[in-house]
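thread: overnight batch results

M.L. [08:02]
morning all. the overnight job finished for the chain we discussed friday. pasting input first so we're all looking at the same thing
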Amino acid sequence: MKCLDSTFCIDLVRGSKEAATKASELSAAGERLAIPAPALTEFLVGAFHQGGSRLTQALEFVSELEALDVTEAISATPTGP
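M.L. [08:03]
and the structure it wrote out:
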């Protein structure tokens, strides 16, 4: 599973070639894609403010993502090497 951040999602919906390439690579590799609930909120708030086709694209994109709940235990778990 790959966890996306709001910046990647924004870049993808805005048509960034780099983000589109990375998204295609992840899809071709069969990766499940997820987004933490706070990043999902940040991404959708911006899309709602823009409205129109940008909102439609954003909603279609996130419908294919797994939204990850953030709990106190998850937040307190260290990550990295």
